[in-house]
Amino acid sequence: MHQASQITADPDVRDAALAGTVSPGKAAAIGRVLRDLPWAEMTPEQNRAAADTLIGQAAGGATTRQIAGSTDKVLEQVAPNLAPSPEGRAAEAERQRRQAIRERHLTFTDTGTGSVRILGQVPQMEGDLLRSVVGACVERGRGDERRELEALKYQRATGDLSAGEYLAARTALQERERRTTAQRQADSDDEHRGSLLTLDARRKLLKARSASDQWRIDFDETGRPHVHPPRRMRGDLPPGHPDTRENSARTDPDQPQQTPLIA
After folding, report:
1. What one-character DSSP code corresponds to residue 258?
2. In this predicted structure, what is the pLDDT of residue 39?
3. Is 55 in contact with 22 (CB distance < 8 Å)?
4. Where is the composition biased (Basic and acidic residues) (predicted)?
5. Alpha-carbon distance 44 to 227, whole Å?
């Protein structure tokens, strides 16, 4: 009921909401801004210009938060003589900050079911920090599409999106999620096939090597090769093989040959 009164307070805003030009949430935000303007000091033309400016912002993609904070900007456009000075805006911001600090409260309650319920309000600066920290905890482990869907639901609940906009965005997001899932599966299949090809090539290479020198290579169920050296007689071992009992220096022409003591 409160939101409806804010929407219907101005006929232009009401018509824009009924026509679907702006969502109900944005229309209510426009109504709140118009209510906070010094309308008693503004002419009817200035009031209509303010409503048109806000409707244009909403239709152009401004969020409810952006609309709610555009009071001074609207005044600067339609009634510059009534817009607060920079000093006045700074003083108002400081007043709001002090009030927000006085009214801040935050409660963490254990639900007894493994969760913690959070309730309260904090100043804007601290709220932005808390939103990023808590958001990271809540969104951990979700995909990009899941996070975007939650954002769409929030925008629909706050009125930033109309029912038609929400359904269209959700359909597009679900289709993208299906494509992403299919692509992930395809990438996984390609990687698996690549691993099999690599394993097959490695097997062929090792088998070719084993055939050339009669070494035996077996593969276990995981594809890991197990190399078994050949059972050769000492005389069959190639020169320099570590298993030979002959001094490798004697077969090396660069090494001096020892003269036997007994001929």
Report:
1. P
2. 82
3. yes
4. 174-194, 215-224, 242-253
5. 94
Alpha-carbon gap, residue 116 to 122, rounded angstroms:
18
Distance CA 65, CA 73 (A): 14
Q: Is pLDDT of 255 > 80?
A: no
Q: What's the chain's average pLDDT? A: 72
> What are phi and psi for residue 109, nearest 5 degrees?
-120, 125
Report domain extents, the chain: 1-83
Using one digit for the tens of pLDDT, what is the confidence trace for 47-96?
899 999 999 998 888 888 889 888 888 998 899 888 888 888 888 888 88
What pLDDT score does 167 carry?
A: 81
In residues, how long is the chain? 263
Which residue is associated with the tokens 């030979």? 244
Could you report the per-residue pLDDT of 89-109, keeping only the tens digit for each? Answer: 888 888 889 999 999 999 999
Asked if 244 and 250 touch (Cβ cutoff 8 Å), the reply is no
Residues 6+ apart with CB under 8 A from 12: 48, 51, 52, 55
